[in-house]
Amino acid sequence: MPLLLRSNRLCVSCFFLFTSLVIAFCVAISPSIKCLLFRAAPYDPIRSPLFSYPSSYGEHKHVLPTFRSSCSSPVFFSDYPSVFKEIQQYCQDWTDLPLSYMQGKAATFGGNFSIDKRVSFFDQLQQRTEFPCGFFKPFTVNDYDRVEMVGCKGVVVVSAIFGDHDKIRQPKGLGSKTLDITCFFMFVDDATLKGLLNHNLISLESNEYKIGVWRLVNVSTEGLYKNPAMNGVIPKYLVHRLFPNAKYSIWVDAKLQLVVDPLLLIHSLLTKEGVDMAISRHPFFTHTMEEAMATTRWRKWLNVEEIKMQMETYCENGLRPWSSSKLPYISDVPDTALILRKHGVGNNIFSCLMFNELDAYNHRDQLAFAYVRDKMNPKIKMNMFEVEVLEQIVLEYRHNLKRGASSSPSNPGNRVKIIRAQPDVSAANGLGKCQGYFSEMWGESHY
Questions:
Q1: Do residues 212 and 80 touch, judged by C-beta distance below 8 A?
Q2: Staple partner for 347: which of 1, 78, 117, 276, CB 3.0–4.6 Å?
Q3: How far is Cα 214 from Cα 170, in angstroms, rounded to an integer?
Q4: What residue spans define the domains of the chain?
Q5: Band of the pLDDT at 4, cuts 50, 70, 90?
Q6: pLDDT tens for each residue of 389-434
Q7: How far, CA to CA in Å, does 115 sit from each of 314, 339, 359, 421?
Q8: How far apart are CA 387 and CA 338, in angstroms?
Q9: One Pfam family name from the record (predicted)?
Q10: Is the dihedral of CA 358, 361, 366, 370 positive or negative?
């Protein structure tokens, strides 16, 4: 026996070293294995790059790191060929009665209905009811794009960039047949088109623009909202009206890049769960009021008085903090950067009701989310998956970094003006009309 192997200490040390390396390797790769589990059948991804950007465009700059090292709710993906056939067949066999929508003209795109008028639509979901659902002002796009939008009859992936606020990023991991039944549409304004033109990504000689898989739809924002973020809410929540023949949709904030095939996501997060909508829970907050306070604290919306009025209106009309009585909803605050939808009656009504609240107040959709979800009857079926899953299916980037630009979309200029909330002199404790909400929230959260 070699002298080297006679040393018991050396053998034990080598054994522990080898064991430690194996454990370290397993721990390093465990998050992705535990969060996203593929079956053994071929995944069949598209291997060639979808589009080559000029180096000056910098589409992969400023990616944000992820910090979660475990996953409490793994997602199991079926094999790609069977998923494709199932979704394709479902889109072909789809039968659903469409909703009727209010027509006419108004001062705003959404109609700016009173609180009483909006509340009246939460508890009447008959087919004969005409729901207010935007488009009380023109949403102007060219005829070429409109024909393509109406012709999208399967899955549509939608995003938007207004004010040249983000980069266009190509999805990764697409299956070889996904584009046969999936459309990718990016809504942009003139400012965004100008930025793309400066990088030679589009040509003004054509009326139709396409970058990789994304078809660009130029929207005339004249007569819409002054806030670019609010204009982005139109395709975000009224996707079922812009694409009336689509059966499924995925909203992707322009700050995100999909890294998993959209058909696999729809199959695993929507159809297998038997729900109308799939959306991630917020990484930090559970109660709506927590999000409202963070919105003002971090200056995500500068009109604090407006936020106060909105929350007090919701409290008066039944908003309560999250508790176990709201299960199977696991939180009142979602991360709305990624939304997967089945375009059925329940989801379409929810989207209309959501848009009406955003039109009445502001684009901060997390503030209205639980109010609409809990108040509508019958309830929408929803899969609120864990944040760890979201971090595995998308990459998140910072918005375009520009010198001298305001960080708040509510004030696009350089001057920052905060409208502070007025004190409620009728409430001794300062909690106003939401006193019951806070008392219940603090008791539940043990603050």
A1: no
A2: 276
A3: 8
A4: 80-399+424-444
A5: very low
A6: 999 999 999 877 654 444 344 444 445 566 665 655 445 455 578 9
A7: 10, 26, 11, 20
A8: 11
A9: TOD1_MUCI70
A10: negative
